[in-house]
Amino acid sequence: MLYAATAAGALVLLALLVRCRGRRDAKQRIKTLVVLGSGGHTAEMLRLITDFDFDRYTPLTLVTAATDTTSRAKAERELPREALATARWVQIPRAREVGQSFVTSVPSTLRALFACVHLIWTASPDLVLVNGPGTCVPVAVLARLFGSRVIFAESWCRVSTLSLTGRIMYWVAHRFVVHWPELARRYPRAEYL
Fold this sequence. Notes:
Blueprint: H1 2-20, E1 32-35, H2 40-49, E2 60-65, H3 71-78, H4 81-86, E3 88-92, H5 102-123, E4 127-130, H6 136-145, E5 149-153, H7 164-172, E6 175-178, H8 181-186, E7 190-192
Parallel strand pairs: 1-2, 1-4, 2-3, 4-5, 5-6, 6-7
């Protein structure tokens, strides 16, 4: 219990320190962090960011799960060279593997959360974009705590119900985007795009 209280206190202190740091430079560049899930989540996120103005959304930090063996290669094939030229790649532990029980996901989520502290501290993002893999939850929670804007886009395959990650991110994200009108009607904070 004491360990958890100490850890929570350390996270709050780090958040206060980060909020004191300057957020934007004179050119209005937006430090952007993007979490790439595996498989379909990566494909969806790449479709969302491929046409970004990477002169404005820079520096770019791309995050993958440590067990994800395909997302980086896919991103390197599909993203513009100017985006990749200065992008920083970071791997983090998964908060929860597909099919992992909720009971055993508690310690793995805590492990991922602590691994993300360094990521958020060094990237100090203004904007965090996430779209569905459980890997994004600890990143988004810490980023929000540290003063970043968080945008979550629910997976396109979610037509009438939210994913587990979506149900969590509904309360974490500043903006919550869905792709089906049924979801927008069910969830008042959702933006249908």
